[in-house]
């Protein structure tokens, strides 16, 4: 049976980059204030992403915020498959979207450890999420920057 390709809805145009960035920063500030223990104890990236997703839910009312969500509508998300590239299951760290129907607003790839540059593999994934799954914005997040207590953010829009 053929899979029906769903049309992509455009994320609310009122949620421009400045608004989304401000909401993400507010969620990160809440994360820092309420969940500093996770950073100090160097817990897993998944744990930090799950905690951050709770704060993002408060910042994005009316949107779903999911961790390691692997669906595109009702089917698994795959990337690649062109030429000699093998299709691989796509599982972003955090997404802000509307389940099943779209639109897809924000995809986040996170690193628990320090970084001051975007890993090329993560950059490729983020750009593919924007192109193939229709995310309006993509963000690389390192919870702590190298040699600093500050986080590192890189936006793709």
Mean pLDDT: 82
Helix/strand order, N-terminal first: HHHEEEEEEEHEE
> Biggest sheet, strands in spatial order?
1-6-7-8-9
CATH architectural name = 3-Layer(aba) Sandwich
CATH topology, what is it called?
Trna Endonuclease, Chain: A, domain 1
Q: What amount of the residues lies in strands? A: 25-35%
What's the story with the biggest beta sheet? 5 strands, mixed
What is the CATH top level name?
Alpha Beta
Give the termini separation: 35 Å
Radius of gyration: 16 Å
Low-confidence stretches: 1-6
Q: Can you tell me the overall shape?
A: globular
What is the number of independent domains? 1
The count of helical stretches stands at 4
The helix fraction, in percent, is 25-40%
Structural class: alpha+beta
> How many individual β-strands?
9
Provide a descriptive summary of the structure in words:
The chain has helices at 17-34, 36-40, 45-59, 120-133; strands at residues 64-67, 71-72, 75-76, 78-79, 88-89, 94-97, 104-114, 137-144, 152-156. The model is unreliable at 1-6 (pLDDT under 50). The strands form three sheets. It has a five-stranded mixed beta sheet with strand order 1-6-7-8-9, sandwiched between helices. A two-stranded antiparallel sheet has the order 2-3. The protein is of the alpha+beta class and 157 residues long. The longest helix is centred in the N-terminal third of the chain and has 18 residues, at 17-34. It is built from four helices and nine strands. The termini are far apart. The chain is globular, with a radius of gyration of 16 Å. It has one domain (17-156): Trna Endonuclease, Chain: A, domain 1 (3-Layer(aba) Sandwich).
